[in-house]
Amino acid sequence: DIQMxxxxxxxSTSVGDRVTISCRASQSISNYLNWxxxxxxxxxxxxxxxxxxxxxxxxxxxTGSGSGTDFxxxxxxxxxxxxATYYCQQSYSVPYTFGQGTxxxxx
Amino acid sequence: QVQLQESGPGLxxxxxxxxxxxxxxxxxxxxxxxxxxxxxxxxxxxxxxxxYSSGSTIYNPSLKSRVTMSVDASRNQFSLKLNSVTAAxxxxxxxxxxxSTVRGEFDHWGQGTLVTVSS
Lengths: 107, 119
Description:
A: seven-stranded mixed beta sheet, B: mainly beta
């Protein structure tokens, strides 16, 4: 299985901050990398697919980049509704696997 | 707008079989992969497997011996069965749609249903 490692596991941030979350794959996955946002008690929501494509309806402050083994999710200016847990997911090979999550907390 | 809704028992006895159904509304089940994902409380996401609308399946090897998925296109539903359950199978179970047969991202999700394995 391909292991996905996110960093940091948690981040204390403030509204208006620029935030970058990293995701590393244990082997090259080309651009088969997706990002999700999950709020407590809710299902994950797709933000970014194919490493850098913005899902319809997702605000432009979310951007994804990377290829191969190293990827990043950037939120340009945090809004209150962005405090949540973020997961990366590889869809290069089955079994699809997720990172352990990065929780954004209010400072 | 496509919507997914999980249904099934919230409590299953150890060594029993977990059975869930996902009903798709607002769109056809045809020509898509449909996926089951689970999440133990306070933990991360685990991909269980997927089924194509034609019925072909791929399962997570870690669960393969215990998992069966099926699809009923006439009812726009697909289902999950997980047998020989233990407490480790207690989790919120989500059904989701693969947005693309090529890329593998999940663009629509059910709200999730908590299944507890306990006597």
